[in-house]
Automatic annotation (TrEMBL):
Entry's EC annotation: 3.4.21.89
Membrane topology listed for this record: Single-pass type II membrane protein
Presence of keyword Transmembrane: yes
PANTHER family: CHLOROPLAST PROCESSING PEPTIDASE, SIGNAL PEPTIDASE I
Annotated Peptidase S26 domain residues: 28-226
Protein name per Swiss-Prot or TrEMBL: Signal peptidase I
UniProt xrefs under InterPro entries: LexA/Signal_pep-like_sf, Pept_S26A_signal_pept_1, Pept_S26A_signal_pept_1_CS, Peptidase_S26
Length: 249
């Protein structure tokens, strides 16, 4: 009687071990998945995100359908510099009337994959309400165009801009003349494809008056991540603004 009771007591314990092992594995898998999502969310929120380029305004630095990785520590923990290529939310009215190519996935699988990647900062599902331009003027800067040589000036220092895309024979940095002083807490931005960019010059009638509030800046684009044959670091061209920075001192 004792042997039978001991045998019956042992059999349930032996039968439960596989089930307990599977449950433990599934529990650990869920914990790992949640932890990975949390870490990815924190990375997206505070460190880096991916965006696609929907327009020609930054050619030839950036091409349509390029993907860029953005450092979100700028301009919070790291200061913006003149020449930085920045991604920012539409301050209001900048995208009104813009016709942009649709480069988002169209299949259900593609949309699901892009949604998941967007949650961890590597997808581009939230790019539609963002723009990308180059910082020309920081708060307090006087930005004017154009001098007799067609150059733009910042704080009286003429700029030689090697990144500009201009029509053959055109040497003016802007088709329209302007003179602005950048208000506190904002920046003045322009596209490298200077004659095909709806940038600060053409948004004076919007709520931001053409200036981009620093609070709307998502971060600094620092690398082209896709397509692979376009992989390269993005240059902020410090030599262009060297004279301006010396005057700052």
């Amino acid at each position: 009687m004792t042997d039978t009771t001991e045998g019956e007591a042992r059999r349930p314990r032996t039968a439960k071990k596989p089930r307990n092992g599977v449950l433990t594995f599934l529990r650990d898998l869920v914990i790992i998945f949640i932890a990975a999502l949390l870490v990815s969310f924190l990375v997206k929120t505070f460190l880096i995100r991916s965006f696609y380029i929907p327009s020609e305004s930054m050619q030839n630095t950036l091409q349509v359908n390029d993907r860029v990785i953005v450092n979100e520590l700028v301009p919070g923990a790291v200061k913006l510099k003149r020449g930085d290529v920045v991604v920012f939310k539409d301050p209001g009215g900048w995208l009104t009337g813009e016709t942009l190519p649709n480069v988002q996935p169209t299949s259900s699988v593609g949309k699901a994959a892009d949604w998941l990647l967007t949650q961890v900062g590597l997808g581009t599902g939230d790019s539609d309400d963002h723009l990308i331009k180059r910082v020309i003027g920081l708060p307090g800067d006087e930005v004017t165009c154009c001098n007799d040589l067609g150059q733009m000036s910042v704080n009286g220092v003429p700029l030689t801009e090697p990144y500009l895309k201009l029509p053959a024979g055109d040497t003016r940095a802007s088709q329209t003349d302007f003179s602005v002083t950048v208000p506190k807490g904002t920046i003045w931005v322009m596209g490298d494809n200077r004659n095909n960019s709806r940038d600060s010059r053409y948004n004076g009638d919007t709520p931001s008056k053409g200036f981009v509030p620093l609070s709307d800046v998502t971060g600094r684009a620092f690398v082209i991540s896709w397509p692979t044959n376009r992989w390269t670091w993005l240059d902020d061209h410090p030599e262009v603004f060297a004279g301006v920075e010396q005057r700052d001192k």
